[in-house]
Structures are given as structure tokens and as C-alpha cells.
């Protein structure tokens, strides 16, 4: 079975539905409230597992009820969390989320134990975790130095290294050059791509090319309902978004990244992997929640084959 090693965050999402997103200083009376598992790392791990990959999830949680519950849920998905770090005395990560009736969202994160996952923890991981041909997927809700340490080990071992640069650091942050140089594939959304490219407004292809010039062989800019654009040294591909009724966009990017990692681990051509991941992202916005909305392989296959 194709394998994805996911090194990233684990949070508990606390979500309020609102008629619209509040402006600065404004109180908006909301509707339903829900507490659900989340965190970009965890969401992508679940997405990759449901998409058919064997997944090892390296994360950090506190020794609290939220952390214990999260690890139990990941095990229930069939995800290997034997290398997860439990931090004594630390609170597990929490995300506070507003979701508007039009599907747009606003998120604030209290990282908690996620910040305790260190480069030393990465160096202590067993060598057989980093297998040639597998995919390593990581993001930046954990310390960037930790993500970089994992990326370098993955690259040295012959893995395909995918960086989802969320949240994006400033383009002039010294670590950005190292992160981009260590990645085979970088998957920012439009805002993250602009930040990585120096903040100069331009067409998505030009922005992606500026990022690619800093190291990664492939840059994929996700564009929500507009699909995605991928650029390599040889070609540029645009995959249009699928038309769906949006309910909640919270997990769309994570669905894309998890499905993309699973497809790349299978050795699919880039164009096929992009179309399949775009279908997964579109399905995710048709349901409320993050992990609850992530589709399984059968659903992605069926939707990807369906005519527009």
C-alpha cells in the first residue's frame, strides 16, 4: 500500500456557525456550536488515509482529555500514531472557528503542545520511517524548524517531500529559503503563495514561478472554487474547480493536500493527481466540519468520473 508520512498539528476545533463573518470589534450572534477533531496535520492525515494511503502521523498532544481523545480517533481511522509525542503538563492544540452561511471561514489557533514538537524529536525518529518512494507531507502549524528537519530527512532518504506552507511565513523570514529548497512540491493557497513570493500582486502563474525559482520542482497554487494551478520546469497545468453547493470550506485545502499526497504515493502522473485532489476538495465543502467532511476513496473516484 502507498504510504504517506504526515508530520504536523493536532487540534480540537470549536466551531460556531454565523450568518456572516464578524468585522474587527464586532459581535455577531451565531447559531450551532460544535467541538470536533481538527488541525491541518490531523485533517490531512485523515484525508490521506480515507483516500487509500497507509498513513503514519507524527504529532504532539498534551496529556489531557482532548489529546487522548484525538489519538483514539486517529487510531480509529486506521492511522499509525505510535510515534506521536504526548507532552506532560501541556494543553493540546485548539482552533476557534467561525463559519458563515456562505461557507467562508475565520480561524484562530492556540497551538499548545504542537509547539513542543522539536527538531530533536525528528532526529530521534527511526530511519525506517523515511522510506524511498513514500511521500512526506508537512505544514507550518508546528515549528518551522521542525518541519524543515523532517523535510531534510525525507529528501535525503529519497521520499517525495510536500510542503503545505500554512500559515505562510513572511517571504523575508530566513527559514523560507531553506523550506523551499528542501521541498519537491509546495502547495500554497493564493494568499500563502503571494506571501511566499514577496507580496507583489501578479497572475497566479507568475506568482507560482517566483516561488519555484527558489527551489521546489513543482508549485501548486490552490484557488478554492477556481480549482488549482501547477507549474513545473516543463509545463503549467490549470485544473478548474468542480461546481458544488458550498456548505463549509474549512477542510477543503486539507482534503486537497491529503488526497494529493495519497495520489503521489501511488505514483500517479501529476495531472491525474491534481484532478483527483481537486475532486476531493470539492466534495469536502459540501459537508459541514473538517474531518467529518473528508471524503473516502470511493466517493472521490465516483465524483472525479462524473460529468460536470
Explain the overall architecture.
This protein is α/β, with parallel strands linked by helices. It has helices at 40-50, 65-76, 119-123, 144-157, 174-182, 190-196, 204-212, 252-265, 270-284, 297-305; strands at residues 3-7, 11-18, 33-38, 54-58, 60-62, 85-87, 93-100, 105-110, 135-139, 160-164, 185-186, 218-222, 228-231, 236-239. The strands form 3 sheets. It has an 8-stranded mixed sheet with strand order 4-1-9-10-11-12-13-14, sandwiched between helices. It has a 4-stranded mixed sheet with strand order 3-2-7-8. Strands 5-6 form a two-stranded parallel sheet. The longest helix has 15 residues, at 270-284.
Distance between the termini: 31 Å
Tell me the structural class: alpha/beta
Compressed to H and E, one letter per element, the order equals: EEEHEEHEEEHEHEHEHHEEEHHH
Beta-strand percentage? Answer: 15-25%
Number of helices: 10
- What characterizes the major β-sheet? 8 strands, mixed
* Fraction in helix: 25-40%
Radius of gyration: 18 Å
Q: How many strands?
A: 14
> What is the topology, as strand order, of the major beta sheet?
4-1-9-10-11-12-13-14
Outline type: globular
> On the 0-100 scale, what is the average pLDDT?
93
Provide the low-confidence segments as ranges: none
Provide a short characterization of the protein structure.
34% of the residues lie in helices and 22% in strands. It is α/β, with parallel strands linked by helices and 308 residues long. The strands form 3 sheets. It has an 8-stranded mixed β-sheet with strand order 4-1-9-10-11-12-13-14, sandwiched between helices.
Amino acid at each position: 500500500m502507498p504510504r504517506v508520512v504526515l508530520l504536523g498539528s493536532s487540534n480540537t476545533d470549536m466551531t460556531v456557525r454565523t450568518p456572516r463573518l464578524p468585522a474587527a470589534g464586532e459581535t455577531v450572534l451565531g447559531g450551532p456550536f460544535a467541538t470536533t477533531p481538527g488541525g491541518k496535520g490531523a485533517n490531512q492525515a485523515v484525508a490521506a488515509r480515507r483516500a487509500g494511503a497507509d498513513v503514519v502521523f507524527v504529532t504532539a498532544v498534551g496529556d489531557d482529555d482532548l489529546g487522548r481523545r484525538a489519538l483514539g480517533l486517529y487510531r480509529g481511522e486506521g492511522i499509525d500514531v505510535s510515534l506521536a509525542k504526548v507532552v506532560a503538563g501541556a494543553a493540546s492544540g485548539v482552533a476557534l472557528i467561525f463559519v458563515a452561511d456562505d461557507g467562508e471561514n475565520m480561524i484562530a489557533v492556540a497551538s499548545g503542545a504542537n509547539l513542543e514538537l522539536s527538531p530533536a524529536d525528528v532526529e530521534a525518529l527511526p530511519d525506517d520511517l523515511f522510506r524511498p518512494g513514500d511521500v512526506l507531507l508537512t505544514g507550518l502549524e508546528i515549528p518551522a524548524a521542525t518541519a524543515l528537519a523532517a523535510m531534510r530527512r525525507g529528501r535525503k532518504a529519497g521520499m517525495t517531500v510536500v510542503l503545505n506552507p500554512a500559515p505562510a511565513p513572511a517571504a523575508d523570514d530566513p527559514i523560507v529559503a531553506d523550506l523551499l529548497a528542501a521541498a519537491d512540491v509546495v502547495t500554497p493557497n493564493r494568499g500563502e503563495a503571494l506571501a511566499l513570493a514577496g507580496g507583489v500582486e501578479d497572475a497566479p502563474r507568475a506568482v507560482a514561478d517566483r516561488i519555484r525559482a527558489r527551489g521546489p520542482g513543482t508549485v501548486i497554487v490552490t484557488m478554492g472554487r477556481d480549482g488549482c494551478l501547477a507549474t513545473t520546469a516543463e509545463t503549467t497545468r490549470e485544473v478548474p474547480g468542480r461546481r458544488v453547493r458550498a456548505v463549509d470550506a474549512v477542510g477543503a485545502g486539507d482534503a486537497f493536500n491529503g488526497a494529493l499526497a495519497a495520489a503521489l504515493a501511488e505514483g500517479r502522473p501529476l495531472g491525474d493527481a491534481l484532478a483527483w485532489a481537486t475532486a476531493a476538495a470539492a466534495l469536502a465543502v459540501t459537508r459541514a466540519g473538517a474531518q467529518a467532511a473528508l471524503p473516502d476513496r470511493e466517493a472521490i473516484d465516483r465524483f472525479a468520473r462524473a460529468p460536470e
